[in-house]
Amino acid sequence: MIYFDNSATTKIADSVLETYKKVSETYFGNPSSLHHLGDLSTQLLQQSRLQIANTLGVKAEEIYFTSGGTEGDNWVIKGTAIEKARFGKHIITTSVEHPAVYESMKQLEMLGWEVTYLPVNQEGVIAVEDLKNAIREDTVLVSIIAVNNEVGSLQPLEEICALLKNYPNIHFHVDAVQALGLIDLPLGGNSRIDFAVFSGHKFKAPRGIGFIYAKEGRQLAPLLTGGGQEKNKRSGTENLPAIAAMSRAVRLVFEEVDQKKSHLRNLQKKLRAYLETKEKVTIFSPKDHAPHILCFGIDGVRGEVTVHALEEKDIYISTTSACSSRALDVDSSTLHAMGVPKNVAETANRVSFSAENTEEEVEKFMEKFDEILHQFEVINS
């Protein structure tokens, strides 16, 4: 089996799974309980939070646990809207956001908020000048995806941060779900990023767990109220086994991180060079983008057809975003924003690597891809 769908989800790492099992068996007390078992669970919860914070170079008080990227994006966007409504009701985002961000914006629009969607160029990147021109007196939030989940385009975060230092009252939210350990993401200290959202299953942790970074001093209204967990910001009994496992996974991400990024880049370059030789293949990912994603399509062949043709050869990729790929009537919003015609966007496929993928797997992919290209040519002849 060759698994090239790591932007959709990753296989949990062996040591992470072992941590999950051990904590499930040993630390089963509720952290809110007053007895000894509750104390043990509380200590592990605090230790896990501190380990993540130390790995990212931020404070433990700036880490809040969630169920994943969707909850994190919803919480930051709507929590900021609630908290800042008295100061203004204008938000700026991009036209290439994940549905968790886009749909949150649409909900706020129905409640009377005004949202500006910044356009992108043919590489899926915004112009910082457009962002500057969109800022108003009533702007309270800027929400920008770090790494696009469909084509891997990178937004100019450094330039955006420099601009927003002139607007200290505007909160800056970054969807970093596809970014951990894959690009430089300045957090803490003097960084202008106020909120960053992460999802465990994107970096070999269990599903259903994630966290947000919330810069000290930035207020965020809770969406989930009740028992007062997470400093009264996110109620609900903590999923301690998943939290501890995610803490382990975060540490693993940054072990030999530069070598991992170099390896991913080499895999991507190898596959891209091969695809560029194919007359009937269109590559949608820009050349200067995230190291683990490559989006392309076969002319005249719908993306899901290519997915299933490769699946028959025990190779697993996706169309674009796994969150919407089963909705066949939904086009890629990213490719549309990049100016790709609808009939061309329908051909899109996404290969996404992990550090465990090998050059031999890429070579096997190329061999099998040649076979399906020939099959499609025979069918269409």
TrEMBL record:
<dbReference type="InterPro" id="IPR015422">
    <property type="entry name" value="PyrdxlP-dep_Trfase_small"/>
</dbReference>
<dbReference type="InterPro" id="IPR015421">
    <property type="entry name" value="PyrdxlP-dep_Trfase_major"/>
</dbReference>
<keyword id="KW-0411">Iron-sulfur</keyword>
<keyword id="KW-0408">Iron</keyword>
<dbReference type="InterPro" id="IPR000192">
    <property type="entry name" value="Aminotrans_V_dom"/>
</dbReference>
<dbReference type="GO" id="GO:0003824">
    <property type="term" value="F:catalytic activity"/>
</dbReference>
<dbReference type="InterPro" id="IPR020578">
    <property type="entry name" value="Aminotrans_V_PyrdxlP_BS"/>
</dbReference>
<comment type="similarity">
    <text>Belongs to the class-V pyridoxal-phosphate-dependent aminotransferase family. NifS/IscS subfamily.</text>
</comment>
<dbReference type="InterPro" id="IPR015424">
    <property type="entry name" value="PyrdxlP-dep_Trfase"/>
</dbReference>
<dbReference type="GO" id="GO:0046872">
    <property type="term" value="F:metal ion binding"/>
</dbReference>
<dbReference type="GO" id="GO:0051536">
    <property type="term" value="F:iron-sulfur cluster binding"/>
</dbReference>
<protein>
    <submittedName>
        <fullName>Cysteine desulfurase</fullName>
    </submittedName>
</protein>
<keyword id="KW-0663">Pyridoxal phosphate</keyword>
<feature type="domain" description="Aminotransferase class V">
    <location>
        <begin position="2"/>
        <end position="365"/>
    </location>
</feature>
<dbReference type="Pfam" id="PF00266">
    <property type="entry name" value="Aminotran_5"/>
</dbReference>
<dbReference type="InterPro" id="IPR016454">
    <property type="entry name" value="Cysteine_dSase"/>
</dbReference>
<keyword id="KW-0479">Metal-binding</keyword>
